[in-house]
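Researcher: Before we compare anything, I want clean individual predictions. No alignment, no superposition, just each chain on its own. First chain goes here; please echo the sequence and then give the structure tokens.
Model: Echoing the first chain and its structure:
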Amino acid sequence: MTTNEPRVLGLASALLAVAGCGGQQGVDPPNPSEPVPMTAVERHGALSITGGHVVDQSGQPWSVAGPSFFWGNAGWGDGAPAEPSDYFNPDVLRYVQSEWNAAIVRIPMGAETPGGYIEDEDGRWARIVAAADAAIDEGMYVIVDWHSHHAEDHPEAAVAFFERVARQYGGIPNLIYEIYNEPLQDTDWSTVIKPYAERVIGAIRAIDPDNLIIVGTQSWSQDVDKAADDPILGFENIAYTLHFYAGTHGEGLRDKARYALQLGLPIVVTEWGTVNATGDGGVDADETDRWMTFLARHQLTHCNWSLHSKQEGASMLTSSGLPDAHWDEDSFTESGRLVREIIRKWHSVDYAGRGE
């Protein structure tokens, strides 16, 4: 299948060139005589599903862009100057909201992996709360993500986790639940992932009847076509996640997404990268541009992987990008500079009108 999405003059490549030209683009200091602008959540309210689309409080399809943090597990520094969850703090959230216009952030909390939530409930919960509270204070949407490849092996833990999230944040319009990050390729949608999801969704809905819930899909959240053929029924405001890495995934994966969208499946891209699916390699600016055109055309919300300083291609930050958010141009990787500009420009004239 061929694509009909316009290319918009190689926007990602152009943004990357602009981003590398020096001087950080900050925001002007506030003028006390001017009204304080409304935040994304103040203006658009809780997100929900209508007619196969994510819509805002006025019922209009709307998408937002922002970063995803790295795994929130303890002890996962991997030689980086700081632990991933050290970035889960108000300074970082304030920075990405004010400097990047980020309207959403994703908090990926490892589940059964070493240093994850199951092993360290209180310690990891404190990190989640620090990030979620800061994002809410900044008027951002926040995705709380059960970051697992084997969530069906620990359904009781997932239920208890999301009941805790719902009791703490249920009913707050900023909150979005992501109940399974990336099921593996051999984890069947209909017989494994879907029943797991129905159980967790039921537990959430007993506490929070309204906030958006996002369900992972088979094959590292790529097989949205299988979910479209057998969607979850009986619950409101359910969406499905699509993950892609521009260096690996192209038109074939977009075809799966088109098929799902045509069948009315609501999609949120909770994780994407400019590099290879391994999280490493160089930036593929051309394929990133094709993906951004696709996301903008279909008004799909997205979070880029990842806001961390690990030495890999997908990281936004270099070793000088510490969790204090005192960042200059040298603090950003090639991917970080490109993603920063994409997030900044998401609702500007560069993206508006990129339709058929």
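Researcher: Okay. Second chain, same rules.
Model: Second chain and its structure:
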Amino acid sequence: MTHFEPVDRLQDDFVLAKQGDRPSLDRLLERLRPQVVTTCYRLLGNLEDAEDAAQEALIGIVEGVAAAEPEETWQALVHRCSVTASLEAIHVASRQQAGDNGAAEHGASARPAVEPLLTGKTPLADIDRIEATPLRSVATYESLSLVFVNVLHLLAPETRALFLLRDILGANEAQAASVLQLSAEQMQEHLAFARKTIHAAQSKLPRHPLRPSHPMAVRIMRRLARALIRTNPVQLTALLDQQAALVIPAIGSFHGPEAIAMQFNRLFEVGLAPHATTVVEINGQSGLLCYRKRRERSGLRYYPTLALALMITRTPPAEFKIVRIDMITDQKVMRKLGKLVPYRKPAASAAGSNGTNQP
């Protein structure tokens, strides 16, 4: 779980770092890194690219601390460096893709798939402390969710950055203008379009999804785990809302229980049904990490094959259903969700494989 440092500690380190204190600068960079990665991820939608951009942003923060104006806050510096590094990464990727395809218009259509930032929830006490300041450095539970990041990527990069700065991070108009080099009129147009788009998209999503700790969310995740292990699409469809959606990056979206069950049935047919699962939290959403088992010379080993981020909500009159499933298969993401299960001796693994869904 990513932990965001309280504001007072960051401010103390920022003041000392501006005075040339190197240990304070090192602590500041270490404490700011989770927020920098989060901001870059929201703009890029890809965890690997976000980590690369965060490195550039942290270099910019080091240079910015030394040259910071007396009135510049650490929040403004983080926003400026994170957004600048992310937009530069977007533009470089677009130019490279345009060169590969021989035409600039092809570059915009080949954005990397959106991946979940695997941070867990920010502690509520830290949110209260941080959001009590005029410039917020993190946003609320909902704005960190996987669905929000997908919705955010409906916008063009500069529009996305402006919406993020103004409505999520709480930057003022002057700070946003200095980062994006936009006039007041341009910012007003971009922001109005962004708010309209975000509102239209989010209005189609459930307003009150269950938190991962909710008893019904846990129960539904366990029932889903049993259905997947038993390769039983009928049990699986019983957990889905009639308007449920399955989102598989690079493949597409599938709507309705029957279409979703068909996609899972195809996974079962090609041998991807999990042998075991474990409940995880994926960026504030409920999730399942699915494992396959493999017998190797050292014993039996479970290894993660895919993760499912779930949105579970209450539907009228009083039912609880899964309304959205995001499937993640990237192995780098798997490693961030959970380590490979250690090797077990054959005798112990045989006994343990019969009594639990969790490896």
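Researcher: What stands out in the second chain?
Model: The CA atoms of residues 127 and 299 lie 45 Å apart. Additionally, Residues 1-5, 103-113, 119-138, 341-356 have pLDDT under 50 and may be disordered.
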